[in-house]
Amino acid sequence: MPGPFSVPGTNAVVTGAAGGIGRAVAARLIADGAAHVVIADRDADRARAAAGALGPRASWEAFDVTDERAVAAVVDRIWDRVGPIDLWCSNAGVGAGAGLGDDADWDLSWRVHVMAHVYAARALFPRMAGRGGHFMVTASAAGLLTNLDTAPYTVTKHGAVALAEWLAIRHADDGIGVSCLCPQGVNTAMTAGDGASASTRLGGEYLEPEDVARAVAAALRDGRFLILPHPEAADYELRRAQDRDRWLKGMRKAWARLRGA
């Protein structure tokens, strides 16, 4: 059975790591003693720059996490070039679709927030089985609660949480650890345009990516599945589960306040 994950001496891959949470997590892994961290991103120039800034124990790969063949090829390439992958942080995300969005928003959100994790697990888990490893899914507190601004984001982040739970149950006997990162508001490029009426403001002050990376490091060290950089999210989820109708009523009131702002 998997337990705490020890970072020193391991090889890690972080997707969506050219900036934001991904870059902060990669930097933290290097600071905590990882032997090698691969900065993976769709933007080759930014991935190259991020890896260069992190020093000789970082390298980069540019690929689309929604392309299953590309993901499988990258896993093969890293395994051959760097060595066995001990930790994969499936972190890439998008903020697509206001309100109900359109079909393109739903398609992109589904492919990035759900299928990208599926493709990575398909490529990695057969290799990790028996030898061990760890897989971290970056979801969102929206996947435990809701984001009132965007249905595509909320629904697919719920899917990400459900997938992480399924993987944690099914693959524990293979020696593979799984964790699920669910932050509330974080100061990244994705939230740069959030105004006072953004629903993520309901969770209080935004954290910095480095705060999230510290929470990830602590959870890996402790062997915890659910990573909550905003601990209050656990209370919100508990209230939601205990009395769904009351929670929905409260969220409707919050939405009315946001529209007034």
TrEMBL record:
SUPFAM superfamilies per record: NAD(P)-binding Rossmann-fold domains
Organism of origin:
Nocardiopsis endophytica
InterPro entries per the UniProt record, alphabetical = NAD(P)-bd_dom_sf (IPR036291), Sc_DH/Rdtase_CS (IPR020904), SDR_fam (IPR002347)
Q: Does the keyword Oxidoreductase apply?
A: yes
- Pfam family example for this protein? adh_short
Could you list this entry's UniProt keywords, alphabetically sorted.
Oxidoreductase
Question: Known PROSITE patterns for this protein?
Answer: ADH_SHORT
What residue ranges are annotated as transmembrane? none
Membership in a protein family: Belongs to the short-chain dehydrogenases/reductases (SDR) family.
Protein name in the entry: SDR family NAD(P)-dependent oxidoreductase
Gene3D superfamilies associated with the record:
NAD(P)-binding Rossmann-like Domain
